[in-house]
Every structure is written in C-alpha cells, then in structure tokens.
Amino acid sequence: MANLKDIRNRIKSVKSIQKVTKAMKMVAAAKMRKAQERMEEARPYANRLEGMINHLLPDVNREFLDLLDVREVKRVGYVIVTSDRGLAGSFNTNVLKTAQNDIDSIGKENVDIFCIGKKARDHFKRRNYNIIESHTDFWNELKFNDAIHLGEGIVSHFTKKHVDEIHVVYNEFVNVATQKIQSELLLPLVFDGDEKQIVDRLYEPNKEDIVKSLIPRHLNIQMWKYLLESFASEQAARMLAMENATENAQEMIKDLTLQFNKARQAAITTEMLEIVSGAEALQN
After folding, report:
1. Structural domains of the chain, ranges and CATH numbers in brackets
2. Is the dihedral of CA 253, 256, 260, 262 positive or negative?
3. pLDDT by residue (tens digit) across 69-119?
4. Least enclosed by CB within 10 Å: which of 81, 215, 231, 263?
5. Residue 192, pLDDT score
6. Tens of pLDDT, residues 177-226
7. Model confidence at 230, in pLDDT bands (50, 70, 90)?
8. Nearest residue to 86 (alpha-carbon basis) of 121, 126, 118, 133
9. Pairing relation of β-strands 178-187 and 165-175?
C-alpha cells in the first residue's frame, strides 16, 4: 500500500487538474454559445440562397460558368475541417477517420487535400498524403473574410481543372451533446430539388446573370457555414469532454481519500500495537 505522503500528493495533483478541466469547460461553454448564435444566424440565409440556386439551375446552360462544369471524375479534392487543439473527445478523430476512409477508397494518389486546422494537417502530413493547402491559427478570431480567403484557393483549384470534384468533410452541430459527421459535395454545383417546388416566376435581368451573381456568394456562405458548424461542434465536444474529466477527477479524489483514510488507520493501528507491545515487554 502506498504511503500517506504519496497518496496526499496524488490527491493534490488530481485537484489541480480538476480546477483546470473545470475552467476549460466554462471557457468552452462561453465560446460555444457565441458560435452557436452566429451559426444559427447564418443557416437561414445559406438555406434560402441554396434553394434559389437549385430552383434556377435546371433552366440555365451550365457551360457559361466553370463552377457548374460537370466533368468525368478522374481526380478529387477533399476539404477536411478540424480544430487546432485537442482535448475535445472524438471530435477530430471522427472527421479524420471518415475523410481517410473516403480518400483511401478513391486512392490517395488521386486526391488533393485542403487541410483546415492543425489536426488535419498533422494527420495527413505524417501519412504522406498530397496536401495542397493548410490553414491554421485563425479559429480564435474567426471572421467571414477567413471563409472568403479559404474559398478562393479551393474554388481556383477546381476552375483550373486540377480536380473534377471538391468534397468537404466536417462536423455539423446538431445540439450540445451531438455532432454529426457530414461529407458533402461542394463543387460542381448539382441540382437536387423537388419538381413540386418549381414555380413559374419572372426573373430580371435573366436567370443566367442571377445565377452568375449568386453562386460566388453561395460558395462563400457555404465555407462560412462549414467553419461555424465545426467551431460550434468543437466547443460543444470540448465542453462535454472537460465536464466528464471533471467528474472523473472527483471520483478519483473520493477513491484516493478513501485509500488515504485506510492507510492512515492502518498506520495508527500499527503504532498502537507497537506501543502496547512495548508496554507489555517492559512489564515482563
């Protein structure tokens, strides 16, 4: 059995760690609330914009815009959205596992990767995948201009015909306890609507000009959505992970305290037996 000093030091160490995890949980909760508000503000605009484009696409000639060009798929681009830091449970692991499975099914020699977050960059760099761009150290001051900057390189890679498709793998925020892995086709834009929703409308100046104006905005807001969803999911996952760590630390403190009390009782009992034995020896 460990001596009293060792157990006391372990209790002190666990209490210190518990304070850190509790503080990290509070910070993550505050960041998550702000990120969730921004995400919920962006969702309606993104959905309406996507709906409008989907309504117009069947009636326009795809050849007039490179972003609508549906080509034979020979090479694919993957945008993988992770965080810069860990301590968020399985948040990064699930994204990386899904992305790597998709890429390996295609063949990594046929895939170009855009890494958003240090975890994605480090994971695929160690495994010698073809990384075109990596973006890190912007999450704490996340702005819409970051989405525009990220989107420029990704869209350019498609329009220059380096790849024939662009997919995005990220965490979608469902609620505080649930984050869902999504793998979506970003480019080319493909119509996927319901004929029942098609209504005869008059568009000015014409549908082609409207689509040409809306698509760049759509791609920017999509990148913004991916970043906001991922950031809110990261903070929710970290908050839950730190909450679990705090509770586990409390259980460990209870176990160590019980162990400490047992060791102290055993030490006192041993001392009393020694005293009694010594007294009896002197009487004899």
Report:
1. 4-20+242-283 (1.10.287.80), 29-238 (3.40.1380.10)
2. positive
3. 888 889 999 999 999 998 888 899 999 999 999 999 999 899 999 999 999
4. 263
5. 61
6. 888 999 999 988 876 655 444 456 666 777 778 888 888 888 999 999 99
7. very high
8. 118
9. antiparallel
Q: Cβ of 127: how many Cβ atoms within 10 Å?
A: 10
**Which amino acid type is present at position 41?**
E
Cα gap 139→278, rounded to integer Å = 69
Query: Which residues on neighbouring strands pair with residue 165, listed in sequence order?
Result: 76
**Residue 185, C-beta contacts closer than 8 angstroms, at least 6 positions apart:** 165, 166, 167
Residue whose C-alpha is closest to residue 83's, from 131, 137, 132: 137
Q: Other C-beta atoms within 10 Å of 240: how many?
A: 19
Q: What's the mean pLDDT in 27-31?
A: 91
Structure tokens at 171: 């965490």
Polymer length in residues for the chain: 284
- Only one residue has tokens 């970043």, namely 227
Q: Which of 150, 149, 110, 116 has its CA nearest to residue 130?
A: 110
| CA distances (Å), origin 52, targets 57, 62, 188, 245, 271 | 9, 16, 16, 45, 84
**Most confident among 43-57, 115-129, 135-149 (mean pLDDT):** 115-129
Q: What are phi and psi of 199, to 5 degrees?
A: -125, 140
Report how far residue 80's alpha carbon sits from residue 112's, in angstroms, rounded to the nearest whole number: 11
Q: How many CB atoms sit inside 10 A of residue 281's CB?
A: 8
Residue 139 in contact with residue 38, Cβ under 8 Å? no
For 69, the 3-state DSSP assignment is coil
Which of 75, 82, 192 lies closest to 135 in space, CA to CA? 82
